[in-house]
Specification:
Shape: globular
Number of strands: 0
CATH superfamily: dinb family like domain
Helix content: 55-70%
Structural class: mainly alpha
Number of domains: 1
Number of helices: 7
Distance between the termini: 27 Å
CATH architecture: Up-down Bundle
CATH topology: Four Helix Bundle (Hemerythrin (Met), subunit A)
Strand content: under 5%
Largest sheet: none
Length: 144
């Protein structure tokens, strides 16, 4: 998780590296019609990092309301972009801490109300972040 987010990942640039230097204006641009913006993807990643952390800590599958899955960007100021990046960092660090604290002996147990083990849930969070990091990498080239 750390390598994908901010480390030296084997697949390419980490999510944090990709977001470095992107301005609020660039993050809000929609260079591909009907595709999400960088900003929307950041809010989406943040929301799912929070949900996965709650799932790991609470032991059950929780749902994300549709309006929180891809929240609308209502303020496209530089201050709001900085806040979005800070929230991503906060929720990412909380997720990493939850993963580190999780007992290995329970990794193969299913979460209550779900079809997935904790192990698959944690790997899913990494895969999710990387999937959207790839989208951000492409969008970043289009908004520069």
């Amino acid at each position: 998780m750390e390598r994908a987010y901010s480390g030296k990942a084997w697949h390419g640039p980490s999510l944090r590296f990709l977001l470095r230097g992107i301005t609020a204006e660039q993050a809000a641009k929609r260079p591909v019609i009907n595709a999400h913006t960088i900003w929307e993807l950041v809010l989406h990643i943040t929301a799912w990092d929070r949900v996965v952390c709650q799932r790991i800590q609470g032991g059950k599958t929780t749902q994300l309301p549709p309006n929180q899955n891809f929240p609308a960007v209502t303020d496209s100021s530089a201050t709001a972009w900085k806040k979005a990046l800070q929230e991503l960092e906060t929720h990412h660090q909380a997720l990493v801490a939850a993963m580190k604290e999780f007992p290995d002996a329970k990794l193969d147990h299913n979460l209550t109300g779900g079809d997935y083990t904790y192990y698959i849930t944690m790997h899913g969070a990494v895969q999710h972040d990387l999937y959207h990091a790839g989208q951000i990498a492409i969008l970043k080239k289009l908004v520069k």
